[in-house]
Structures are given as structure tokens and as C-alpha cells.
């Protein structure tokens, strides 16, 4: 958690930013002002970020981007950087580059404009799905998912059956091995090395019915909870979520854990937000800058 | 001191920014990323800033500006804001406004292009002088000066001599009062309420001969000292100052106190910089974020 505040500056939190490590890759999700300093402070390796995901271009989600892009350039980066974000991020990146033509790496911008969930990154063992949110300007949420792994074959079974490489390949794909005289059932000799995990990042948004279906089965859900229930009117007019909005999404999607952030500067005590959510969804945690969660 | 680091992000310092209170007015000098959070943290009233002075457009001096401008706009600011900076800051402000047309206050940009010191702000009791620095791209230093105050007249003298309003006005201008039969000497009945103070902000720059004359008599000098002496080669090639460069400027201008900052991230221990400066100029202080100095 690199930044957990909302738009107005506060002394003890940076605006929105998170770093995510997924099977050896590092992602940066939103990049509010001060994100790069948080990365240094909390030990996130800036140069190893290979993809950046920006929800929307409100300042508290994007004003740290130019600093991050400059810094990795000054650090001698040559590896290309992928940036996923709404279309109106394009001119911002273009303007940045017009003032920073010395940068030695390529910025590959991927403008988002989907109306329903769409896979935007398809890696060997993980994938990222983007989906639209409701916040007045174009805003997107992101679902990070490990892919279903191949089956592993028990070592002792290889010896016992004298499995060939072709047969091991068959088992890794989840199929049974069919020999002339016998069948070696996959279930007997192979196992899944891990259960795929998933993490969703949902901010800024008013809640809306489709997100329940889109986020069904997500293990850990980060959902903004900008306002306490008493300020529901503000949440509605500004297209944000309240504590109970976020808690109900967690409950209805079957999440194992709910992380909340983006707290309004008018109520600074995060435990108030947490307590309200827990009346609906007990496994809620109000996050602070520097928090680390393992899924 | 809102930010005292140089360009590479470090965990314990923000990049360059300072707030200055001059006879009731608040100035912001440079605005590196995170400046607004430092202002909140250290109690600088954001909305009372009436003028911003930007030395140059390298990111560590200007990437906090958009956040600051947004935040005071969100806070409902209506009062105009004056921004002084190099000409290439103009398109940056223009681009910012093209994305933030909701802002309710006027930004008055004053492009700087002087080749020698020039007064850029002429207030009732203070003034600001800008002057060019040497840093590869257009860069300016700023000298903040209280004006020579009018003379005050001792209260008891008003009664003793039965001074008229006209005569008091004469005395306030520093002149003697000439009556038909006598002279009331200014020196006997009037006094200066304070000695004008001055503060210079000099970053980023290689040292150059003219700055000695331009800064002569400055009370407190903030001068960058990016490098320890052992890295003088880097200071020369990147047009920065070393510790002893800064100390010699303080010595030769007759400063009462030297403040140093903008320390390279390769040597994080500020006491090393301070110790080197003190071999030449004992009244040197390495500044930290949150430090407050009264002149």
C-alpha cells in the first residue's frame, strides 16, 4: 500500500497507489503524488515495475506518474514500460514525453475503453482484466488473477510407472495416460501446485449492480470506501462508495477479505470506516501506507 | 523547509520546496512532488500562499505544482495566484489548465527571462528580486527582502513637542522638522522599528562570479550543496555546487548564516555536508524537511 488517502492532502497518507507482486512480476496500480517516495520507503524496486495500471486521471491517482517515469529514466532504464489507462491519459503522457525526450526507454500506452470486463494482459502464469467503473469520468477497475497452473506429476510416480516425457506432458495437461494395456489416472499421479489467487482493485466508483458478477469469486477485494454512512449523500453526488457499499460488494461477490481505503479527509480515523464495514463483512481491513498483504 | 532532497527519491526527504512568511504574506518557493503534503504536515496554510516562485522545470522542483494547484482549487480558492518562473513553465501551466478548467481562481503567470537581477515583486513592505543561475536550462534564484521601514516617532516626543500630523509625516520619511524658531532633529525623536532582513534561495546552480555581488549582504543564504567535495567532478559536469562552493559564496557575500540542502542521494548523511561547509563557513546548517528558521 503506497498511498491510501483520497484527494485532499493529509499528513499521514499519500494519495492512491499500490504495488503488486504477481509471480515474480511487479505492477504499479495508480500513481498518486509521492508514490515513488513510498516505493523507496517501503522497499518496492522501482526499476522492476513492468506495467502500470491507472484507474482514471483525477490528480490523486496520477500526479505521481511523471515523477516515477522521470526517476526510472534517470536510473538508466532501457526496458519498455507498459501503461494501461483511460484514453485521456494519452495526451498527458505525450505532453510529459515532449518535455522529457531524454528518456531512454519506451512507454507503451494501452488506452482502455471497454464497456465490460476484458483481458488486457495475458502473461504466462497470470492475467489482468479491466472493467469500467462509475465515477463521472472514464474510470477502470482491475482484476489481477493467477492462471490455473498446469498439473505437476509426483516424482515417485515417474519412477514407479517409468513415465516418458510425452506421458508427463499428457499428465501436466490434466489428462490420463492411456497405455495399450492400462490407464494411469491423472488423479493418482498428478496434483495442482497451487490454487490460483485473485485480487481486485476498485476505485473510484459508486457501486453498481454489474460489479458483483464481474468480481464474483475474487479472493481479496480492495474497494474504495471514501465516506462513512453518515455522508452517503456526498458519496452519491460525487460517485464514490460508502463503507457499507464496499462491504456489501465484498459480501455478495464472496470475497475472502475486503481492504478499504481512499478515506475522506473529513474523517481521518480509519477505524471508524473499518467498524462500519465489519457490521456487514467482518473480514474488512482499513489499510494504511506501508501495509503489506499476502494473498 | 518542505523538501530538501535532490532529484532521486529518498525515504526521509521530499524534493525541493520551501514556504516563506514575509511580513504576513506566504510564498511558496519551488514545488517538488509532495510539497502539498509537507505543507499540511508542517502547518503551512495552503490557501494563504499568494505567490509561487519556481527556479526551473526539472521535475524535483516542479512536479508538486499540479497537485498544489488542484488542491487549492478544490478547497474553493477564488483569490488569484501569482506564479513566477522560467518561460518554459508557461506551456506546463497551460496544459494543466486545459485538463482543469473547473478551477475557480486565476493563475497569473509571470515568465522570467532576465540576465541580471531584477525586481519581480514590489509589495508594501517587501520585495523579491530574481536573478539567473547556471544550470544548463533556464534557472533563476530569488532574493526576498524586507524594504527599509519608515521611521517611527517616539510617543513621548509627540506630546513633548506637540507634533502635528504633518510633522509626524515628515519625521516618518526620515527628515528633520523645521519650525520657525527651532529644528526637531529626526535622530532625536524617531527610530527604525526593525532592520530589514533578507533571504536568498539559490538552487540549482554551479557557482559563478556574479552571484557574489548579487547576493552581497544577504542575511540568510540557502544555497544548494548537492555534492561533497569528493564528487566535485559530478558537480562540474551537472552544473551543481559542492559543499565548499556553497560555503565560499556565503563567506564572500558576508551572509550571517548558510543553509544547505538538495543533497545527492549517493551520500545520505547530511552531517557530512555540514561538516565540510563549516571548515570554510562555521554558521552552516544542513536543513531537513520540517525545519523552521526565523531570520
Largest interface: A-B, 26 and 26 residues
Cα-atom radius of gyration of chain A: 22 Å
Q: Count of DSSP E strands of chain A?
A: 16
Which runs of chain A of at least 5 residues are low in confidence (pLDDT < 50)? none
Characterize the quaternary organization of these chains: homodimer
Distance between the termini of chain A: 14 Å
In spatial order, strands of the major sheet of chain A run: 6-7-8-13-14-15-16
Order of helices and strands of chain A: EEHEHHEHEEEEEHHEEHEEHEHHEHE
What does the largest sheet of chain A look like?
A: 7 strands, mixed
Percent of residues of chain A in helical segments? 25-40%
By DSSP (H or I, 4+ residues per run), the number of helices of chain A equals 11
The class by helix and strand makeup of chain A works out as alpha/beta
Shape of chain A: globular
Mean pLDDT of chain A comes to 97
Strand content of chain A: 25-35%
Q: Could you please describe the fold and organization of this structure?
A:
The structure is a homodimer of 295-residue chains. Chain A has 11 helices and 16 strands. The longest helix of chain A is centred in the last third of the chain and has 11 residues. The two termini of chain A are 14 Å apart. The model of chain A has no long low-confidence stretch (mean pLDDT 97). Chains A and B meet through α1, α3 and α4 of A and α1, α3 and α4 of B.
Amino acid at each position: 500500500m503506497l498511498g491510501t488517502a483520497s484527494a485532499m492532502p493529509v499528513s499521514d497518507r499519500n494519495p492512491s497507489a499500490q504495488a503488486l507482486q504477481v509471480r515474480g512480476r511487479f505492477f504499479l496500480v495508480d500513481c498518486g503524488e509521492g508514490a515513488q517516495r513510498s516505493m523507496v520507503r517501503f522497499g518496492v524496486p522501482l526499476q522492476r515495475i513492468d506495467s502500470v495500471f491507472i484507474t482514471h486521471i483525477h490528480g490523486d491517482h496520477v500526479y505521481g506518474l511523471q515523477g516515477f517515469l522521470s526517476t526510472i529514466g534517470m536510473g538508466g532504464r532501457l526496458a519498455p514500460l507498459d501503461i494501461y489507462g483511460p484514453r485521456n491519459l494519452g495526451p498527458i503522457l505525450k505532453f510529459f514525453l515532449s518535455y522529457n525526450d531524454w528518456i531512454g526507454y519506451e512507454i507503451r500506452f494501452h488506452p482502455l475503453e471497454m464497456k465490460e470486463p476484458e483481458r488486457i494482459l495475458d502473461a504466462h502464469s497470470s492475467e489482468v482484466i479491466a472493467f469500467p467503473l462509475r465515477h463521472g469520468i472514464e474510470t477502470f477497475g482491475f482484476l489481477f488473477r493467477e492462471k490455473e497452473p498446469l498439473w505437476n506429476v509426483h516424482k515417485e510416480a515417474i519412477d514407479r510407472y517409468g513415465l516418458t516425457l510425452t506421458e508427463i506432458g499428457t499428465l501436466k495437461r490434466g489428462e490420463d495416460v492411456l497405455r495399450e494395456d492400462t490407464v494411469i489416472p491423472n488423479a493418482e499421479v498428478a496434483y495442482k501446485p497451487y490454487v490460483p489467487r485473485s485480487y481486485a482493485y476498485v476505485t473510484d466508483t459508486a457501486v453498481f449492480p454489474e460489479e458483483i458478477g464481474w468480481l464474483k469469486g475474487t479472493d481479496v477485494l480492495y474497494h474504495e470506501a471514501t465516506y462513512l454512512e453518515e455522508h452517503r449523500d456526498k458519496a452519491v453526488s460525487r460517485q464514490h462508495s460508502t463503507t457499507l457499499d464496499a462491504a456489501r460488494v465484498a459480501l455478495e461477490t464472496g470475497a475472502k477479505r475486503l481492504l478499504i481505503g481512499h478515506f475522506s479527509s473529513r474523517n481521518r480515523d480509519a477505524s471508524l470506516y473499518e467498524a462500519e464495514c465489519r457490521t456487514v463483512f467482518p473480514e474488512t481491513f482499513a489499510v494504511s501506507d506501508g501495509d503489506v498483504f499476502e494473498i
